């Protein structure tokens, strides 16, 4: 009988439960040219379940943080899948095995990426001793004009002209805010163009990795440098706060690396990645370092923007007269409805939010001291208006977690608030879409009795705990391991090499400074540390590390005589053939001619 492949697995389960497989008849199921009997299918089903359980177990160890066990289990699983594929060519079995293999491969890829990231953090503890001293900040950043910089200049003057004109216009809008902050921190004014290429000086910019604001801070880095990021506020969007934080970060990077090219590269990709590149590649020349593509083009892009920005008219840019961003600043330490601020400053709610894009809600945050921006010339008027609000009319907030059976109307009655106000405050558009456990913010009257400590702005001060030095830890193999060199042959892959010598794939990458997507080519030498008792014999492509063999020995050159073979030469000097081949890697052991020169490392006595 014909059975559709998509229903086969569920059908087998039904047959097992009903006992149909115990029938005395040997009914065959036909798949193309292959016939599989029900007894065979009965035997395969438990094996598939076993493979699924192994995948679940490997995934569980991964999410519990035991990535080494997860990697080991997923490797065993892949071997089992390949073995079953060769013995079970039934279409439905192969389809299910392909699915399991894909899931296991994705899991392994995640583990390897996580191990690589962990290795980076362990490999670099702070930043190179040779670049740890403090450096004098230049008044201007020196522009390096090369083909990459010229490429970006042509782009800004060509296809990107419309966008770059808009960016230059924003420079004039925010220049009077950003440049005084940079100067007060002993930083070059030129760094305003870092914000230009990061975000186009768009205060609300957000990247695909959630870097936010004009200086494109990630949340973790922003908090490290004093920016407050929570349900109420995101100071990464505040032009003043984020500029102070960026200035502190740039000062830190410049102190670490000693020049602006490396500091800007560190700003883009992280100081640890740049420090690791300097350590492994033995150069601190930005233009020679192998860095991620985005970082390799980031500094030339900055230099192109800076070159044009210093004299836009010389490059054909006409910047329209623009009104600078002006405002008054008032300090608020209690939660205040923005509509009250707007009314007292004769502005609108939209206008106040435009001045303060860092505010995410309808009011200033409770328990926080906020430097609120109000329309220019209205600061004193707003302060006076707020001082007239009685304490009992001020608003404080509490959190309500929705329980089973509660509705918006029930919650509104409980806290004596209108349903429309409750929906507006919490951004609820459909009352039927609230869920159990969801948190609602409830406005309550402030009785003035609370004495909780207020959160003050801290972005003006640099963090107290920042790395002052970089100590690069040289890799030390475990005791007893033997350092070997393997020469890659045609059709070799990293996974095959790792499996052949019984070492982890992630370790093999780390030993040879290979990224996840790095390619290997025939003739490339790979370092392999073999554990004691590995049982791996010297063979084609594998040799002792020449440096360790030569230690404590003296170099000797043997001239091949007529009738000599490599075996007789090794016997004469009492040395192993594998070592001789390692010392003479271009030599063909099967073709020796009189007069050939063979290098030997012999005991000095």
Strand content: 5-15%
Number of strands: 11
In total, the number of domains comes to: 5
Class of secondary structure makeup: mainly alpha
Q: What is the radius of gyration?
A: 34 Å
Contiguous uncertain segments of 5+ residues: 1-36, 119-138, 448-452, 469-473, 546-551
Distance between the termini: 83 Å
Report the CATH topology name of the largest domain: Lysozyme
**CATH class type of the largest domain:** Mainly Alpha
Largest sheet: number of strands, sense, barrel closure: 3 strands, antiparallel
Which architecture of the largest domain would the CATH scheme give at its second level?
A: Orthogonal Bundle
How many helices does DSSP assign?
A: 22
| Rough outline | extended
Give the fraction of residues assigned to helices: 40-55%
- What order do the strands of the largest sheet run in, or round the barrel if closed? 8-7-9
Mean pLDDT over the residues: 77
Q: Would you give an account of this structure?
A:
The protein is mainly α. It has 5 domains: 119 residues, no CATH class; 293 residues, Orthogonal Bundle (Lysozyme); 51 residues, Membrane-bound Lytic Murein Transglycosylase D, Chain A, CATH 3.10.350.10; 63 residues, LysM domain (Membrane-bound Lytic Murein Transglycosylase D, Chain A); 58 residues, Membrane-bound Lytic Murein Transglycosylase D, Chain A (Roll). The chain is built from 22 helices and 11 strands. The strands form 5 sheets. The chain has a 3-stranded antiparallel sheet. It has a two-stranded antiparallel sheet with strand order 1-2. Strands 3-4 form a two-stranded antiparallel ribbon. Helix 9 packs across helix 10 and helix 13 crosses helix 14. It is extended. The N terminus is likely disordered.
